Amino acid sequence: MDGKLKFIGKIALQLRDLQNKKFVILGDRDAVPSYIIAKLLEEAGLEVVYRAVQCSLCCHEGTIDPEDQEAIYQLAKQHGPENLIGVLGQVDEEHIRMSVQTLSKGDPTGVGPLYGVALGLIVYHALECEFRELFERRLYDKHLGFYSKFYECRKLEDLMRELLGPGMRKAV
What we know:
Radius of gyration: 15 Å
Number of strands: 4
Shape: globular
Order of helices and strands: HEHEHEHEHHH
Helix content: 40-55%
Low-confidence stretches: 1-9, 168-172
Number of domains: 1
Distance between the termini: 25 Å
Strand content: 5-15%
Number of helices: 7
Oligomer: single chain
Strand order of the largest sheet: 2-1-3-4
């Protein structure tokens, strides 16, 4: 019982630390939709300031749409990039790579406003274990449990760690 209380306490502390952050969600029409991720965050009392639907087949080389890049750039100017956290819902590895690159180091394709702009955002994937552990399990499962059955969260976590490295993985 004590272990469970400590774990719930840890979650409460993590969520408290996230209260001042703003969330930018890039869902995927063929994987995890942005509105589902937004429902989880909002029910946890967190603020979603932007959400968009990405499509790896529709986007130029799998990068973030230029309109979405512009909106994220403006939000970073308004709130400060240190106060934004990106959450991805794509499952295509190349699309994830391009999105993480764009949100952290800048658009590598040169097609959007984030070309050459290193925002340095903290980025999570909605299905990785590190993101899931920020929430009470019941709440996470209510919104994203269905999707987590179809994708290997450890594989996504390894990919995110490879892309961002250990220094950019902690929001709390």
